[in-house]
């Protein structure tokens, strides 16, 4: 039967009108939990059955040994199905009492994800599945991570739904994703992160700190500043550029996402910076440099190891300049 699977303790299949009584009992008994993040309706199964289509599918998870209970472990909805070059969908799910927390729903959800990636007609032949979860719903996020879904991003005001406060409002969501090429996945696998680095150079007093802070905020990256680590370089007056740099490179190497690195480098420090970037896992020729230039006094010049954007810091960095530099950094970090 298409869209069906059997596991050790549960089985998965599409909903039918024969499920109405079990569904009504399951949703009613679980209302106290589900109402924190949804609008549970114990009477809407006929509408769900009637809505089944190529762009919206539901999967019911049933216990293979229900005993005297209703047997309905949970429901998974797959919506917003897009074919063509995208082959993607979003997934939502509810676990029902008395089965929540027993591991049965996790087994069923694993079977459902397998069906989403399975070839047609038995499955949906998708490439990508996304679960959008409110940040306060740690239990659902933990379930997604236990199947190997990874946190891919954050969507502000994503859905107009209830929250734990009981009010309908626009709710932020975290995006957790799985690709067919990654399935089956290791539980709680590490998040694959793209590492990005940007250098901010210039003479002391050239306004580097302001530029570096703005870039770090735009890119969502840590800020590593020479000024912040000078205290770790004993006996340096003026600060030892090499000593400060070595600390920055170690911090950059340890960062799983990279960083905006702000230092008092001049053209003569190019060899040192090149070695540091290489040791931190970056190709110096691909790392953008923002050179803060007080044109009337600056004779230091940029490092020029990679793409250079010179900013006249006698005037504030414009939003357009900031975004242009940030986009150049993203392009460089995406290059093979």
What would you note in describing this structure?
This protein is of the alpha/beta class. The chain folds into 2 domains: 5-182, Gcn5-related N-acetyltransferase (GNAT) (Aminopeptidase); 196-334, P-loop containing nucleotide triphosphate hydrolases (Rossmann fold), CATH 3.40.50.300. It is built from 9 helices and 13 strands. The chain has helices at 20-34, 45-50, 104-117, 138-146, 208-219, 226-229, 241-254, 270-279, 319-334; strands spanning 5-6, 10-13, 57-63, 72-82, 88-95, 128-133, 150-162, 168-179, 196-201, 223-225, 258-262, 289-293, 308-312. The strands form 2 sheets. Strands 1-2-3-4-5-6-8-7 form an 8-stranded mixed beta sheet, sandwiched between helices. A 5-stranded parallel beta sheet has the order 10-11-9-12-13, sandwiched between helices. Helix 5 crosses helix 9. Residues 232-237 have low confidence and may be disordered.
Please supply descriptive tags for the structure shown above.
alpha/beta, acyltransferase, single chain, 336 residues, Acyl_CoA_acyltransferase, 30% helix, Aminopeptidase, P-loop_NTPase, 13 strands, Rossmann fold, N-acetyltransferase
Question: Short summary of the structure?
Answer:
By secondary structure, the chain is α/β, with parallel strands linked by helices.
Low-confidence stretches: 232-237
> CATH top level of the largest domain?
Alpha Beta
N-to-C span: 44 Å
What number is the mean pLDDT? 91
Strand content: 25-35%
The biggest sheet amounts to: 8 strands, mixed
Instruction: Based on the coordinates given, report the CATH architecture of the largest domain.
Output: 3-Layer(aba) Sandwich
Helical residue percent band: 25-40%
Instruction: Return the structural class.
Output: alpha/beta
- Rg over C-alpha atoms, rounded to the nearest angstrom: 27 Å
Strand order of the largest sheet: 1-2-3-4-5-6-8-7
Order of helices and strands: EEHHEEEHEHEEEHEHHEHEEH
* Number of E-type strands: 13
What count of domains describes the coordinates? 2
CATH T-level topology of the largest domain: Aminopeptidase
CATH superfamily of the largest domain: Gcn5-related N-acetyltransferase (GNAT)
- The number of helical runs is 9
Sum up the overall morphology in one term. Answer: elongated
């Amino acid at each position: 039967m298409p869209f069906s699977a059997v596991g050790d303790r549960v089985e998965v299949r599409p909903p039918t009108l024969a499920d109405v009584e079990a569904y009504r009992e399951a949703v009613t008994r679980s209302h106290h939990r589900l109402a924190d993040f949804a609008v549970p309706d114990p009477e809407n199964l006929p509408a769900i059955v009637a809505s089944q289509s190529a762009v919206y599918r539901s999967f019911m998870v049933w216990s293979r040994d229900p005993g005297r209970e209703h047997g309905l472990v949970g429901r998974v909805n797959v919506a917003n199905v897009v074919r063509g070059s995208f082959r993607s969908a979003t997934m939502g799910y509810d676990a029902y009492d008395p089965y929540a927390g027993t591991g049965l729903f996790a087994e069923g959800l694993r079977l459902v994800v397998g069906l989403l990636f399975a070839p047609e007609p038995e499955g949906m032949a998708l490439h990508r599945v996304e679960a959008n979860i409110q940040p306060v719903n740690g239990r659902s996020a933990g379930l997604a991570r236990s199947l190997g879904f990874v946190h891919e991003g954050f969507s502000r005001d994503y859905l107009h739904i209830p929250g734990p406060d009981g009010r309908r409002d626009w709710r932020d969501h975290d995006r957790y994703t799985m690709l067919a090429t990654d399935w089956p996945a290791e539980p709680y696998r590490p998040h694959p992160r793209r590492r990005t680095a940007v250098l901010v150079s210039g003479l002391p007093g050239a306004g580097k700190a302001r530029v570096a802070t703005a870039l770090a905020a735009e890119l969502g990256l840590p800020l590593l500043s020479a000024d912040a680590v000078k205290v770790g370089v004993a006996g340096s007056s003026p600060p030892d550029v090499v000593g400060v740099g070595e600390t920055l490179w170690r911090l950059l190497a340890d960062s799983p996402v990279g960083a905006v690195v702000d230092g008092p480098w001049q053209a003569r420090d190019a060899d040192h910076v090149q070695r540091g970037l290489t040791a931190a896992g970056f190709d110096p020729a691909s790392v953008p440099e923002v050179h803060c230039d007080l044109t009337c006094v600056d004779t230091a010049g940029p490092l020029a190891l990679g793409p250079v954007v010179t900013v006249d810091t006698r005037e504030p960095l414009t939003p357009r300049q900031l975004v242009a530099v940030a986009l150049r950094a993203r392009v460089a970090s995406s290059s093979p």
